[in-house]
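input
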Amino acid sequence: MSMTARARLIAITLLAAGSAIGAAPARATAFCEVIETTDGFVALREAPEAGATLVERMQAGDEVMLLPEKSGAWVHVRFWRAGERLEEGGFERYRVGWVNERLIDLCG
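output
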């Protein structure tokens, strides 16, 4: 194999590897907003089921960050009150729980 052909092969391999890395799911670091509901809150649960212990009553505009775990329609999240995450030291003041994915807005 000539040096030029080898260089092209390496370049194509690196380009393909970079594309695969760039295609990682957005949910890995996405922040999402809790949607407005008719009863005025969204339940953050201790486990991925409707009967699990209530951790917090989240409200429209509160934020969640998706964690890697998922169970059916339930997603594991970190939760902050609206704007709390951006306050000094606020990022560390999260709560963790499970929420039904239909109760959070598109993430980005």
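quick obs: The CA atoms of residues 15 and 27 lie 23 Å apart.
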